C-alpha cells in the first residue's frame, strides 16, 4: 500500500501565489518598482515643465512656426513657389519643361562657396492644389533633381515615371488632367505620344482649385562626423529653377495672366534677398519659376515624438535589472536555492508585476509629458492613437521581458552582479551608443538588430519615406527594425535564457544552503 509523499510538490498556481506573497512582502522589491515608475513619470514631467519655446520679431514675442497639417492631421512640408490660375470643373494643363537648374549654398568640403546644382529631390513641374493654404490636398507631375519624373499627391504618395534628366535637347512634356476628383498625370518626349504616369483621387476636391507651375527644393543634407565614427545631419539652403514653354490649358482654366504666389513663406534668406528671389519670369513664351522648400510627408520644422517623453526608461531599466537579478539569487523561505518550478513562478510574478507597473507609469508619462511640451510651445508629432497606444503597451512589455531576462541570467550565472553587468553591456549600452550618436550608422544599425536593445524599436513612431532626403538614423528616431521585429529579438534572448535557467535549476528545492552572491 503506497503512502503519500511526505513533501508533495505544490502546483504552479500555488507556487505563483506563494511567490507573489513573498514578492510583495520582500524587502525592497515593491519599493524598487515604485521608484522605477516614479523615475519614468518624473523624467517626463520635469524636463517638459522647464522647456519653453518662443520666437521674437523685434521686441515682440510671437509663436514659433510649426509644420502645416495635411487633411489627415499629419505634419507635412508644404512650401513652394506657385504660378497659378483657377480651374473650375474639369480641365487640363500641358507644359514642356526644357531645363531644371538650381543653387546649393556652401556645400562641403570647405563650405566656402555657392555652387550651381540641384539636390536629388528638388522638384519643378505642374500641380493641381486645393487653394493656396498649406497642407491642402494636391496632385503634381514633376521633374526631380535625380529621380526622373514622378507623380506625387497628398504628401505621402509617390509614383515613378521615366528616369533621367531634362535639357533643351531632351525636354520633358508634362500634362495633368482633372475629371471630377480624379487627377491623371501623363508625360511625353515629343508632345505627341503620351505615357500615363499615375492617377490620384483627391476625395472632397472643391469645384474650383488652383492649377499651375511650381518649383521647390529641400535643403542639401550632408553628414558631419562626431564621436567614434558617428555622424549628424547638416542641412543647407538650396533653390530650384524650372523653365517651361508651350504652356497650354483646356477646359475650365481661367484665362488671363498667371498669378505669382508662394505657398508658405519664402524669400527670407540672404541668397533670396540679394541674388535670386522666388518668383515667376515670363519672356518670349517661356515661363521660369524659382522656388525653395519642399512638398512631402515629413515636416521641415521638426518636432519631438512620444519617445522624447520616455528618457526615464534608462533609470527604470537599470533599477529593474538590478532588482530582477537579485530576486533570481534570493533564497526561499527555507533558505534553499529556488527550484525550477519556483523559478518559473518567479518569472511569472516578476514579469506580471513589471508589466503592470510599467504600463501604469508609461500611460501617465506619455500623455502628460506631451501635453506639457505642447503647452511650452514645443511641437510634438503625433502618430495617431493606435501607434501611441502601441508605444505604451509595447514599452511596458519590453520592460517585462528585460526583467525576466535579468532573472534568468541571475539564475544561470548564480551571481547577481555578473548578470547586471552583462545586461547593462548588452541592453543599455548599445542603445546609449547609438542615440547619442557615437557609432557609424552601419554599426549602430547592427547593434539594434543583434542585441536585446533591438526591443527599443517599440518607441518608433516615425516613418522613413524614400522620396524624402533625411538622415534616417536611431538618434533621429528611426530604427532599423519594425517595432514587432525588435520585440521579437528581445524575446529571442529572453526565452532561451529562461529555458536554460529552468533546466539547470533543481526540480525540487535543495535545502542545502548555497552561496549565491
UniProtKB/TrEMBL annotation:
SUPFAM superfamilies from the UniProt entry: Concanavalin A-like lectins/glucanases
Keywords: Membrane, Transmembrane, Transmembrane helix
UniProt-listed InterPro entries: ConA-like_dom_sf
Superkingdom, natural source: Bacteria
TM stretches of this protein: 31-49, 310-329, 349-369, 389-409, 416-439, 481-502
Record protein name field: ABC-type transport system involved in multi-copper enzyme maturation permease subunit
Gene source species: Catellatospora citrea
